[in-house]
User: Which sequence fits this backbone?
């Protein structure tokens, strides 16, 4: 009888330990997802800024960048840098790296990350337009 209670207790303890570690690993995976996505978006945004910066350096940054907007290459670059500073701050990086996110924070960061991804797509479209605009203004 004692051996049955001992084996049952051992199985129960093993099960609880498994649940505890499984749940913690699952939380770590989710946290790392947000951090990985943030870092990937940050890297892509910086890459885009560098590409626009190269266009500004190679070309006259005071020329109009977009045919439908009253914005120069330099102004566009400055707006990208400003957005980068706001979206990819060190504070946000530390929050995602260290803290456990509450459910509300997860929802907030999911929205932010999706918005950043959409912005990155639009930046790629803009870059294509900038290259085309510059090519047309040179020709």
Assistant:
């Amino acid at each position: 009888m004692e051996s049955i209670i001992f084996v049952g207790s051992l199985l129960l303890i093993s099960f609880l330990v498994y649940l505890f570690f499984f749940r913690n690993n699952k939380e770590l995976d989710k946290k790392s997802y947000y951090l990985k996505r943030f870092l990937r978006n940050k890297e892509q945004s910086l890459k885009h800024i560098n590409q626009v910066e190269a266009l500004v350096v190679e070309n006259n940054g005071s020329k109009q960048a977009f045919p439908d907007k009253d914005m120069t290459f330099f102004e566009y670059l400055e707006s990208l840098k400003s957005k980068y500073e706001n979206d990819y701050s060190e504070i946000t990086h530390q929050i995602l790296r260290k803290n456990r996110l509450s459910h509300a924070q997860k929802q907030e960061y999911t929205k932010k990350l999706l918005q950043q991804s959409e912005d990155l797509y639009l930046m790629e479209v803009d870059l294509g337009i900038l290259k085309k605009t510059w090519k047309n203004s040179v020709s």
The mean pLDDT is 80. Residues 2-58 form the longest helix (57 residues).
